[in-house]
Prior knowledge:
The structure holds 2 protein chains of 2 kinds.
Chain A: E1 2-3, E2 6-7, H1 14-17, H2 26-35, H3 49-60, H4 105-122, H5 125-131, H6 146-151
Antiparallel strand pairs in A: 1-2
Helix pairs in contact in A: 4-5
Chain B: H1 3-8, H2 25-31, E1 35-37, E2 52-56, E3 61-65
Parallel strand pairs in B: 1-2
Antiparallel strand pairs in B: 2-3
Amino acid sequence: MHVLGVLLPENQLVKHALTHFYGVGKTTALRLCARVQIHERCRVRNLNQSQVTALTAFLSSPANSPPVAPHALAAPNYIPPALGQPLPETEVPTPPDRLREIKIESDLRRQMRENIAHQRMIGSYVGRRHAMHLPVRGQNTQSNARTARKLNRVERYN
Amino acid sequence: MWPTAVVQGGRSAWKGPFFVAFPNLKHALENNIAIKTQARSCTILPNFIGLRFMVHNGKDYVPVTVTQDMVGHKLGEFAITRKRFTYKATKNK
Lengths: 158, 93
């Protein structure tokens, strides 16, 4: 199944398949599942249409997704209202929603390129090392440093 | 995903950024005098913009002019400490 142009293998658990997105790891995948109410043991082929729609809607713009209503935790001395009575309205401060701040795929790549371009523009050591295709954080360069030679560019794509 | 961590650079929020209080900053800014310093780990604060620094790189002092975009970085990031390798042909052979 393709979601936003990324192939999610049918046979995998959703929490594992979601890590195929650039910028989604194990933890974020689990939180995404919880947000759009997909069971932890659900596989991609078992997703129904509404779940796929919800997932696509969330991932296409995490920042614009509807906020989650906060619920107060019950204290030990909590007495529930009588049956049939509505729950009392309580003021709950909205916790920061980190899942709405995630960036995936091209957004994340663009952010990374902008960060490198910023370092290069102000002429810092990090920017210079990127331009020289060398390791940035003080690693040895007498041998190895192959990953840096492959990846470190001013216009970096992966 | 953790914006505060990026801003603080792994430092506790209550401490704030590390910086060195340079004397007579205003005087240096008005007269365009370069401030000679060895404090490479001093964070560039917004009131440093436009100042000229001479930052020590271990051997001598490298001129650094602070611009708007450098705020939040360290002074030492702009004074490289390593010499580029250059091949020298041996004489007397």
